[in-house]
Every structure is written in structure tokens, then in C-alpha cells.
Amino acid sequence: MIAIGHAEDLPTAFMEAWNRHDMAALAELFIEDAHFVNVLGTWWTSREEIAVAHTATHETIFKHSRLSGTLAALTPLGPGVVALHLAWELEGQIEPDGRPGGKRRGILLLVATEEPEGWRIRVAQNTDIVPGLLAPATPVAAGAGR
């Protein structure tokens, strides 16, 4: 079992496991009943499901991928609980038709808890940043209604 002594080390451990294409090591970063929603909205509800899904994609579309990123925010949520936002970039993805994919960017939210064996991911939500698309301003966001 990988021992993560500081919550802020989780994103680096995640990226290192990804780049080694070691999905067993990646899965070890999660608690047994972790939840993970990927960029397509697929929702896995256990460490085992997370491992199986990531193993399948690392044998295909992500087998040559490289993930890099920066811890953009660490927000304490309570004793032994934090939210981490990782701003990431991915290169080397293979498209369904076999051609190389372009660079992707996104935000990975990790909610982590301090466990006896170290910090572990309890909830993950991944979001692609889609170039050129912006959410429309809402009246509240635009300053209306004040």
C-alpha cells in the first residue's frame, strides 16, 4: 500500500501512477468505496471499478498518454478532509480512428480523507476544459438582481 503522508502529495502520486500506466498503483490512492465521475459522466463507485476502467483505457486510448498538472487549490473541509483541485494537461491520447489526439486540459477535483494508512481519495470528479465554449452569464453572475 502506498503511504501518502500529506494530502497535497495525492495529485503528484496520481499523475506518476498515470504516467507509468500503473493502474494498480493509481487505484491504491482511493479508498475501497470511492466514487469517481470521469469527463464523460461515467460514475464508478468502488476502487475496483476505478481500477478496471482505467486499466482498460490505458491498454487502448491512453497507452501512450502523459499527464501533467499543478495543484491549483487545497481547501480544508474539516478535520482530516480536504478538497484538491488539479489543473491538468494530457498529451498522447489516441483517437477512436487511431490518429493521435490533441492536447487536452481540465480540472480534477479530489476529495481526500486522512486514513490510518495515509491520505486517500474518497471522491473524484474530472472535467475537460473545452476551448471556445463559455457558460452563459446568469443574472446573478452578471451582477443583476442586487
- Characterize the overall form: globular
Structural class: alpha+beta
Proportion in β-strands: 35-45%
Number of strands: 6
Write the layout of secondary structure elements.
Layout (H helix, E strand, L loop, with lengths): L9 H11 L2 H6 L1 E8 L5 E2 L2 H12 L7 E13 L2 E11 L12 E12 L2 E12 L17
Structure notes:
- Helix content is 20%, strand content 40%.
- The chain has 146 residues and is α+β, with helices and mostly antiparallel strands.
- It has a single domain (7-129), classed as Nuclear Transport Factor 2, Chain: A (Roll), CATH 3.10.450.
- It has a six-stranded mixed β-sheet.
- The model has no long low-confidence stretch (mean pLDDT 92).
Task: Write a brief caption for the model.
This protein has 146 residues and is an alpha+beta fold. The protein is built from 3 helices and 6 strands.
